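User: Some background: our group keeps a shared notebook of sequences we're curious about, and every so often someone picks one and asks for a predicted structure to add to the entry. Today it's my turn. The entry only has the sequence so far, pasted here. Could you supply the structure so I can complete it?
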Amino acid sequence: MKANTGLTVLCIIGIGATTQSAFAGAEEGLELSQEWCQSCHTTLDQGPGIDIAPSWSSIANDPEKTDEYLHAWLSMPQGQMEHIALTKQQINDLTAYLHTLKQQ
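Assistant: Of course. Here's the predicted structure to add to the notebook entry:
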């Protein structure tokens, strides 16, 4: 019985750490988007972005923009974004930030 209790505590701690990590990633993603992306994309819910770039909110709520799609796109950006080189962690952070913008 004690083994089960210990396992339950470890699972709860693990879930809490994952949630905190995702939240920290979203905060980093917001900062990164404001630093690098806001000249073309609106980073907070401030409208549609400019003509050539969708808002972050519209990207987050587009069902075709899955995590896999976003990771692939951000790993090999094209067009106006081709000069941007993001690390895997930065891509994860931006994706985490996009998750915070999804409308339920």
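Suggested note for the entry: The CA atoms of residues 31 and 56 lie 13 Å apart. The mean pLDDT is 76.
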